[in-house]
Amino acid sequence: MIHNRLETLIDEMLEGHILLDEAIGEFEKLYIKKALARNKQHLSKTAVVLGIHRNTLAKRVATYEKQDRNGTRPLKRAAR
User: What number of CA atoms fall less than 13 Å from residue 18's CA on the CB side?
Assistant: First the structure.
């Protein structure tokens, strides 16, 4: 089931000329935000769930917060 949903999303992104780096970045950001919400913003628990070190998670969260303060950039479109 998830495979089909991912394929549909990927098709939409390819049709919209979304670059791979942007797609991966947006996926990671949302994945981490959702995991943090499920773990009540607890970094250590979330890091365990994600299989990454707590410091790595903290650095990524700080980067996302900085992007949000500066206005999150829209997804880049590939040149046509």
Answer: 19
Three-class DSSP labels, 5-55: HHHHHHHHHHHCCECHHHHHHHHHHHHHHHHHHHCCCCHHHHHHHHCCCHH
Per-residue pLDDT reduced to its tens digit, 27-72: 999 999 999 999 999 999 999 999 999 999 999 999 999 988 888 6
pTM confidence score: 0.78
Cβ–Cβ < 8 Å for 32, 59: no
Quick check: is 79 in a domain?
A: no
Range of the domain at 27: 2-69
Structural domain includes residue 77: no
